């Protein structure tokens, strides 16, 4: 059995369950946040895209997210009558939704695939994004992790998680979607967002995070050797008096805390040689999920690429058994 090069042995990982303190108003915080977003936003707009993809339907979705802000997404789906199960996917750190038709696998497998743009991102890799983040923050290090870092109400990921849940709200209302069969997925940052969506949205019926980021912040910011967690480490090396405030803020956003609220089936993946998202932080979230139907795929000799398309094959098999 492979051992983690960056963290702890696999047998220890399977037992790892940190006692992360939970804010007493966590549920109220997210209930208020989502209620405010739903009150601020109205209907979504959907426009069919013309282009080289001819055997699938590709649509450009604009929906109201946090504070009613317009957020973009691609919908790619098979032709023919519905409703069909849907897979909502969130993007990794720094990336955007890219160009129409870039991601066809889920639609080719018979699902409605919805790919959310991440507000303010889209210029770090890939082919771009289309969603601005109109909200500012106080002093921050380069990147997204420390934007609004001293207040959960102001933090960047409060807005992103809200976008993710609001997207599921709108997907559930689409006539070509079977609202009883909606799954969420994503890799790295997208996996962390999927955990949040699975915890906060009653419409989600399955959660499939791959090498999920944004989990077990207390360990991640002290032990992870690679960015983006080191953005927080660097911030605290300057703002030496803000450690308690920062950890409090992050406790509202921590996937290993939010995962305690996931009651639907989950399929995680983890890579034991990952230096961007430590395996222990993934297991912290996975082990916190109370759902009886939960599995984790372990890639012993991979880094942050995880299982890549191998894992997609596993997801299709797993999801078809449940949907």
TrEMBL record:
Active site per the UniProt annotation: 188 (nucleophile), 274 (charge relay system), 304 (charge relay system)
Residue stretches making up the Acetyl xylan esterase domain: 6-320
GO molecular function list: carboxylic ester hydrolase activity
Pfam families recorded: AXE1
InterPro entries, per the entry: AB_hydrolase_fold, AXE1_dom, CE7
Range of residues in the leader sequence: none
Domain of life per record: Bacteria
Binding site for substrate: 93
PANTHER family assigned to the protein according to its UniProt record, in alphabetical order: CEPHALOSPORIN-C DEACETYLASE
Protein name listed in UniProt: Acetylxylan esterase
């Amino acid at each position: 059995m492979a051992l983690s090069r960056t963290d702890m042995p696999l047998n220890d990982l399977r037992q790892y369950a940190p006692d992360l303190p939970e804010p007493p108003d966590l549920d109220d915080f997210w209930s208020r946040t989502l209620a405010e977003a739903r009150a601020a936003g109205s209907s979504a707009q959907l426009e069919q895209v013309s282009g080289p993809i001819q055997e699938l339907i590709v649509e450009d979705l604009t929906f109201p997210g946090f504070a009613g802000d317009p957020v973009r997404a691609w919908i790619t789906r098979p032709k023919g009558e519905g409703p069909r199960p849907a897979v909502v996917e969130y993007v990794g750190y720094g990336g955007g939704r890219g160009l129409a038709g870039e991601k066809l696998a889920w639609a080719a497998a018979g699902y409605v695939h919805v790919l959310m743009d991440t507000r303010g991102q889209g210029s770090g890799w890939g082919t771009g994004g289309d969603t601005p983040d109109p909200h500012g923050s106080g002093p921050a290090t380069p990147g997204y992790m420390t934007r609004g870092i001293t207040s959960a109400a102001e933090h960047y990921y409060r807005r992103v998680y809200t976008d993710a849940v609001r997207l599921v709200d709108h997907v559930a209302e689409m006539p070509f979607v079977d609202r009883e069969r909606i799954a969420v997925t994503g890799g790295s940052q997208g996996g962390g967002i999927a955990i949040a969506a699975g915890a906060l949205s009653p419409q989600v019926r399955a959660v499939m995070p791959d090498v999920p980021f944004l989990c077990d912040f207390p360990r991640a910011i002290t032990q992870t050797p690679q960015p983006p967690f080191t953005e927080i480490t660097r911030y605290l090396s300057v703002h030496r008096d803000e450690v308690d405030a920062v950890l409090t803020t992050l406790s509202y956003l921590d996937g290993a805390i939010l995962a305690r609220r996931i009651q639907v089936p989950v399929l995680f993946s983890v890579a034991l040689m990952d230096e961007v998202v430590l395996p222990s932080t993934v297991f912290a979230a996975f082990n916190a999920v109370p759902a009886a139907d939960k599995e984790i795929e372990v890639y012993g000799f991979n880094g942050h690429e995880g299982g890549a398309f191998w894992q997609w094959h596993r997801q299709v098999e797993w999801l078809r058994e449940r949907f």
